[in-house]
Every structure is written in C-alpha cells, then in structure tokens.
Amino acid sequence: MLFSSPLFVFQFLPLVLLAYFALDRRLRNTLLLVASLYFYTWGETWLVALMLTSIVANYGFGLWVAQERRHGGGRQGLIAALIFNIGILVFFKYADWIWESLWPLFSWRHVEPLGSLLFDSEWGRMALLTETGRIRLPLGISFFTFQAMSYVIDVYRGDVEAQRNPAKFALYKSLFPQLIAGPIVRYKDVHHEVDSRESSWSDFAKGARRFVLGLGKKMLIANSAAEVADQIFGMPDGVSTAVAWLGVCAYTLQIYFDFCGYSDMAIGLGHMFGFHFRENFDHPYVARSLTDFWRRWHISLSSWFRDYLYIPLGGNRGSAGRTYFNLLLVFFLCGLWHGASLNFVVWGLFHGSFLVFERLGLARWLDARAAWLRHLYVLLVVMVGWVFFRSADLPQAQRFLSAMFLGGADSSQQPLGLFLDSRLTTALLAGVVGSMPWLATLRRRHEQNLGQGRVVRVLALETLGLLALALVLFASSLEL
User: Structure pTM?
Assistant: First the structure.
C-alpha cells in the first residue's frame, strides 16, 4: 500500500485518523500498532512474520544488553543483535546475488535460483519466493533492520534506556509512516513520544500540508520525470548525446522528488499523529561540494553510517590513509545498502572516491572558485553517479556515459520533441525550481509575519488546494 495510492489516501489514512482522535489517549498506541501491522501485512502477507520476528528478537536483545551493562558488559548481546540483523538483511537482500556471482566459479552448469533450492515446499514458494524462484525482498527490510541495530547500539552505549514495554517497542519498529522507505528513525529521537505525546491543531495542519506537499512532489514531478527517464534508459539501441543528457536530467529530478516526496509524506504523517521525525533532505542539489551534498542528501542514512560505522572505525582521527579507507568502506557499504548489484557498488565507490579527492586538495581548489562552478561540479558528479544507479548493468552505464561525453546515435533520428510534451516540460521545470531553497525561504519569512491562527488557516487552504490537485492526478492516472 503506497502513500501515493488512492487506497491509502482516501480509505486507510482517514479511517485511522478518525479512530485515533476518537479513542482515549491510552488506547492510541494500540491502534497505531494494529494499523501499522495491518499496513505491512497488506503489502507482504506472510512476510509480516519476519517483521514480528525482528520485533521480538530486538526487544529481547535490548533487554539483554541493558542487563549486561549493569555488570559492566553488554558486548555479547550487542554482537548477537548485529549478527541477527545483518544476517536477515544479507539473506533476504543479497543471498541470490552472492549465489549467482559465486556459483560460476565452481560449476559450468546452469545456476538454479538459490530460493528454489532452499524452499521447495508449496508454502515456501508462495510466501518467500518470487515467480522466478528468487528470494523475495521484504518491503522496508533495509530500514527496519538499520532501525533495530541503532536501537541496540544506543542501549549498549547508554544513550537510551531499553524499552521494557513490548507493545511500545513494537510500535516504534512498525510505525507505518516510516516503515517502508524511511526516514531511518532512531529510538532515542522518538522514545519520549512513544511513551507520551501531545497533538495540536497547528501540528496536525502542518503535518497534513507536509503530507500533501510530498504527495504532489511524488505524483506531479517524480512520476512525470520517470516517464521520460524510463523511456530513454529503456531504449534497446544507442541514444544521442542530447537524449542521453535529457534522460539523466529527468532521472536526477525523479529520484530526488521520489525520495524527498516520500520523506515529506512520512514526516507529515508523523506530525499528524504527534511524532516529530528529523528532516531527511535539505536541497542537496545546491551543494557546493560532495561533502556538502552528503550532509543534505538522505540525511537519516548518511548520519546513520557516520555515527554507527564511520566514527567507530576511527573516522578522521587516524592517519590520512586510514581516513580514506574508512570513507571508501562506508560508501562501498552504502552502495550495497541500496541494492544487490555491481552498479550500486560502483555508485558508492564513485562517491566515496570524490570525498577522498576533496580531502586530498580538491576541496581547497573548489573553495577558490566561483560558486556557480562549484555547483556545476557537484551536479556533474552526482548526475554521472546516477547513470550507474539507474542503469540495468555496467555495460549499459558505459554506453550511456559514452553517449553523454563522446557522442551517441544520430540526433536527427531522436529529436527531443519525441520525448517531451508540454506537461512533462512543465513538470521538469517545476522540479528544477522546486529543488532550490528559494520557495521554502520565502514561505518561512511569510509565516513569521502571520499570527498562529492565520498560519493554521493558510495551511488548511494550501492543503485543500494541493489535495484537489492530487485528486486530479489520481483521476488522470485512473483514466490511463
């Protein structure tokens, strides 16, 4: 059940909100827990058992670590938790890829999917395998396993007390606004709100507007840009230079407004129910260095790797060589986190390499250059990286980059008008404007001059306007 689906917007969410505010405060956590598990079950059916197993196991790991810490320990419980969480992530997300990568080293025979070999029962095929016999990738597994690890690590470090109420811990792990695609919410940031929270009309109005704004980003800009990007990246033959650049520009906007729009919807939903999640994007395309870009892009993920991997590895406290190794290792794993493919590995190492280059002196050189040149550098590096991220495999990425920089197919056979119409052009231009911080800055200044009551009324009117736009978009998609 996607946030951008009519089922969620016009059935699930209104019913949950009505029930939530109608219930006694003491029952609201129970309602959200039931709704969250139903939300996950809707998309995963039998694999909700994996979510429940993760909840039970990490609840126990937290208590185990807390108990050991009283006696000066905790390391054994922490190691067990890391093995468990990394184990389920590797099995469900990477086992098939590892199997298919290693099997040719030992046999010339046709590679049977690992899932088909492991789960040959009728139930196993139905619950755990795709139609091709590969192991199913559970929705949100990368997010809820990282959440679980951050919780146990924070208990081990003494940054937060272990949650002793299993229902409250289950709510934290399964809370539907951030369950499927983040942001990665740390327990220490929301544990007070899990225990007790207040809801105000102002907070609700801001959350509703934020949700609808994210819905608009997703449906109007991301989905429209995806039409162009999918068409161009899906072309079986070569593309011209102009078409290749159009494709990567469209995907650059698509992936940002897809991720950012979903984060806006998640943050907005959190506000509506009294939770306050941290911001996840801060206009990354206006960054003036790759280091700055990663302070602005998918902040919950980049800060997770920083706090739970980069700093424990030594960060930049050791020798220069060790710092460079730490950066490359973190971005190698960041690439793998996004998917089981060499393309993602190359994408991660590509970004990690530029962070190393900036530490080697590129950052000092950039600091002496004009701001527009620094922006151009970031956009060029990021867009080249997106080619690896979007391409089906490395050969396609190589062909696409060759078309971009060395010349591609005959441009007379691929006019840009073949891929663009007025609607898509408008969406792409809106994406360019929307990726800049100007509108957000103007809005904040405007709200500072309004009283609290007027702010709520303005938010309500804007939300209704954006929701009306969403209705039009839903209707047009149904007609198609």
Answer: 0.90
